[in-house]
Write a structure and sequence with these properties.
Elements lengths: L1 H20 L4 H27 L4
Amino acid sequence: MGELTEKIKGNVNEAIGNAKQQSGNPETRAEGREQEAKGEAQQFKGKVEGALGNDI
């Protein structure tokens, strides 16, 4: 179950990060890049959990 949860969280963070990057405000763009990176990490974590099971 953790795998699916992490993948969903990752998708949401990536989408919000992409939206923030469209802003004209440089600070908001930086936040968007950080949030997108967080989402990518969550996606990866979900893939690892799926491959190893939830035993990690």
